[in-house]
Inverse folding.
């Protein structure tokens, strides 16, 4: 499924739509260049689940943010600065996948081998100043 977003609001709405289908235990792999809108997508997802969208930021340095105010706990990871699989294993990635929350990974391609087979892939591409192509597979 491919969608076009023309604004941050639309990207958040597309994420909110996806949130409706989440039951817990899912892993969402986000890919796209810096500034594509991966974090905005997570913000929309967290808001739709009933969490606090203002608390959402790229966990580039901390590796993991947890948003636990919504109907499902969201574990937000960022593999941008990850040296290798070891770093992800050190923060207990495998255990996070078993928490029945929603595990969302930015720069997921960097930890491709660690992701579950059932992963939901979201690829965001900037095609203009505010236009984004969002492909869910
Ligand atoms: N349609 C859009 N969807 C998402 N972000 C957009 C869109 N148009 C412009 N932007 C801007 O692009 C940037 C996306 O930033 P961010 O979500 O942090 O990207 P990433 O996490 O992929 O590096 C923000 O500054 C946002 O305002
Ligand atoms: Mg980000």
């Amino acid at each position: 499924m491919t969608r076009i977003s023309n604004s941050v609001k639309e990207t958040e709405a597309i994420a909110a739509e996806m949130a409706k289908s989440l039951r817990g235990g899912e892993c969402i792999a986000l890919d796209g260049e810096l500034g594509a809108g991966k974090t905005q997508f997570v913000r929309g997802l967290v808001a739709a689940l009933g969490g606090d969208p203002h608390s959402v930021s790229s966990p580039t340095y901390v590796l993991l943010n947890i948003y636990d105010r919504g109907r499902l706990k969201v574990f937000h990871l960022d593999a941008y600065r990850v040296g290798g699989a070891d770093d992800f294993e050190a923060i207990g990635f495998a255990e996070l996948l078993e928490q029945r929350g929603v595990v969302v990974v930015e720069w997921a391609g960097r930890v491709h081998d660690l992701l579950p087979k059932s992963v939901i892939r979201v690829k965001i591409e900037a095609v203009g100043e505010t236009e984004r192509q969002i492909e869910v597979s």
